[in-house]
Amino acid sequence: MRLSGKHIVLGLTGSIAAYKAAYLLRGLIKEGAEVQVVMTPAAKEFITPVTMSALSGKPVASEFFSANDGTWYSHVDMGQWADLLLIAPATAATMGKMAHGICDNLLITTYLSAKCQVMVAPAMDLDMFRHPANVANMEILRSFGNIIIEPGEGELASGLHGKGRMEEPETIVEEVVSFFNQKKKLLNKHFLITAGPTYEKIDPVRFIGNYSSGKMGYAIANKLAGEGAKVTIVSGPVQIKNVHPQITVIPVESAGEMLEKCLSVFPEVDGAVMCAAVADFTPENYSPTKVKREKDELIIRLKPTSDIAGTLGQLKTEKQLLVGFALETNNELENAGRKLKKKNLDFIVLNSMNDRGAGFGGDTNKITMIDQNNNQAFFELKSKTEVASDIVDKMVLILEQKEGRRE
Ligand code: CTP
């Protein structure tokens, strides 16, 4: 019984997959968990509270008051009692309410009072799942530190085929078990991440920039925070608004500002990941007034910026980890290897512009990691979140080596 002594609040919402929650509940109970079921009013249209209460051995909470005896179900007490709040199935509506704090039922009030880890197993039709509103809400939930158990692909209740069906109960039980057994690998560690582009000003309204979205750097920051680390992102201008509570964002614009902030944070950290697409050149002269269209030609002289990764590489202590990126169009491995040495990095993550789905802007990336022993690890095209996991795994390994825990 791998969940003995664990208190789980199992939230059910109005989805056809609610029937699977009965199997899920049985699985949790079999593993020894004590489970309190909370159902939204819509969930009761799909499965009866009697089934869930018989399986859990406790009355199901649904309304704020019991109609029979006026018992008040305190969402605060439930939130405090729980070691885990698991919402399965979670509809698009419930995830939207969770993301925006709309407390119109007992489950959402419980969610907002919960101090424990929250896991969400979405269930919906494929078009709903991939709608930008739902994608954005899931992103917000992840940024709150909630774990999303991605739905599987397959036949949906609508008859359509695609991603949206709730993960199978046995798999969810395994996720729950591994959550309770996992040890956070980076507790008490602090990391610096640079992310996004830099803007080098020409005049008050123009700048030289690049297409970096910052997604890769923020995804790494989220993973590090998920492993218990504190993270500081020195970030160029990006559209990403929501971050994990353990992440602090220091916004900057130019390469010069980015260097200055990095220099002040670096001495405090255990490691740094240089994801930013830093401009290599900046205008030699800034025009305090708007440059006018007076001549047929405009020549802007540029001067080099400082190499932030290279500067930190010089300052790095034996214990500190430094990771860089290389975006290359040709002689990729050779160029990346050279940058690794020149900047004194522990390892470098290579993106090739020749690989489809890699590089700026998108949600996927294809990388090769090269370390100081010239080990080259090639990875498939993956989502930036999965790529971030691979990078964080490598960071954990090297930090352990540095601390002498492994050979
Ligand atoms: N980098 C940095 N500061 C700079 C330029 C780059 O910190 N001024 C970092 C990037 O964040 C990345 C690594 O250095 O981690 C390599 O960046 P890249 O642009 O590929 O290499 P450069 O050194 O700029 O070389 P080149 O542009 O000639 O390929």
Task: Please explain how this structure is put together.
The chain is elongated. Helix content is 33%, strand content 24%. It has 2 domains: 7-181, Flavin prenyltransferase-like (Rossmann fold, 3-Layer(aba) Sandwich), CATH 3.40.50.1950; 190-406, CoaB-like (Rossmann fold). An 8-stranded mixed beta sheet has the order 12-11-8-13-16-17-19-20, with helices on both faces. Strands 2-1-3-4-5 form a 5-stranded parallel beta sheet, sandwiched between helices. It is α/β, with parallel strands linked by helices. Residues 194, 255, 274, 276, 278, 280, 305, 307-309, 324-327, 339 line the site of cytidine-5'-triphosphate (CTP).
Question: What keywords describe this structure?
Answer:
407 residues; 13 helices; elongated; five-stranded parallel β-sheet; binds cytidine-5'-triphosphate; Rossmann fold; alpha/beta; single chain
CATH topology of the largest domain: Rossmann fold
What's the quaternary structure here?
single chain
Count of DSSP-assigned helices? 13
> Any ligands, ions or cofactors bound here, and which?
cytidine-5'-triphosphate
Q: What is the averaged pLDDT score?
A: 92
CATH class of the largest domain: Alpha Beta
The proportion of residues in beta strands is: 15-25%
Reading side by side through the largest sheet, how are the strands ordered? 12-11-8-13-16-17-19-20
Head-to-tail CA distance between termini: 35 Å
